[in-house]
Amino acid sequence: MTTPIVPRNVATRRATLVAVCVTTAMLMLDIAVVNTALPSIASDLEPGVSGLQWVVDAYTLALATVVLSAGSWADRRGRRHVFLIGILWFTAASLLCALAPTIWVLDLARAAQGVGGAVLFACSLALLADVFEKGPARASALAAYGATIGGAFAIGPLVGGLLTEMLDWRAIFLVNVPIGLITLAVTVRWVPESRDPHPRGGDVPGQILVSTGLAALVFGLLRGNEAGWLEPHPVIALIVAAAALVGFVQHELRTSEPMLPPHLLANRAFAGAQIAAFAISASLFAVFVYTTIYLQNVLHLSPVEAGLVYLPATVAMFVVAGATAKFDGRVPVSVSLTCSLLLVAVGLVMMTAVDVTGSKYVLLPGFVVACVGAGVFNPVMSGLVLGESTSDHSGLAAGINDAFRQTGIAVGVAGLGAFLPAQSMLPGGSPHEFVDGLQQALLVAAFIAALGALVCAATLRTTRSVDEPAEETGGSAPMTV
Fold first, then answer.
1. pLDDT, tens digit, for every residue of 324-355?
2. 476 DSSP assignment
3. Same domain for 220 and 336?
4. What is the pTM of this model?
5. Residues 35, 131 within the same domain
């Protein structure tokens, strides 16, 4: 049994959509803008390779491990209330990033940012589900949300380049402060409260186990690439990761109120969607870090020039994501997601044309193809997640989806980085070694995306359109397969 959605006025809907999209753009930008600024951060703070990679992974890993608990907390405490806490936390952490005197302070501040980002991500889809009922209105809102995710990630390098080149790399974090305060005011004034009338309790042991497992896994991958795979630190870290993640699965199967309910993953469509979300993040969005380093360290482009290379793909992603609303219900979800991941895989293969002396636009054709796939993927995925959950548990469902997305980025950055010699990623490293490693990483990323496409084809065969109205019962039960 679910709580019916109370019709909201136009002003409330628009304000909620603006608040959600602006905060989501801010969160995605804080993954992407950092990519362009990494060489400047490396020159200023003089980190090792792992310290530099943790600038990205500390954020995504913290987001991935906290977002599950944040989703159920939002369902229990009130999504608007938790959303406001997330804005304040994220804004304060952004200020700390801007003031960081060393690489490790920056990494810790990035982890704090990730916690705030987890809270905001966990609430985003739930807030939209509360004010937009199923149908064309929700489809349009999800298209805007999907375009925001993809567009912000794609335009991030240009924004990061402009801020880094015109001001300083610290400006990429300072810009979040006024945006956060404005969004806070909009949320306080316009966004309505919603919660689960029968909330679940917290799962502290599960949170500890999954956080330990994922952190150890990423540390082991990063440290292994830098120090050697047979050294004690990476070996111990990977053993701890395996033990903690196995323990997490066993705990979730036994506990009465798990943070990752097994019954949700027993839904074939919902489980397939999470694997697909992991696949696109571990492929396209993870390799994005290294293609940006290629443009600056190998082809010697300025931060702004590197950002401009991605601009056509940004436009393509926006257009494609916005067009998904017009085709709502006409194309089966399985077809949309499978084809989108295949486009990502094809685009990544095309990007293997990178060369030490290549044109600065050598990445562009493949990146456009991949971003067209991502433009289809994001809004369709958001609709599927909401369609496979009830409105009362939309915060939990959104949290699970975001956990798989962000885990994909964190593990993808660490895993794909293993194909690039550590010193080649720093200024002054061997461009030939970097390019050889990047080509291998792109092929592996394409393989991951293709596997995601196969999973979609296998698990979503009987899934109907994500916003198709429920049958004559008038309820809002989740779809089954």
1. 656 656 777 778 889 899 999 999 999 999 88
2. -
3. no
4. 0.73
5. yes
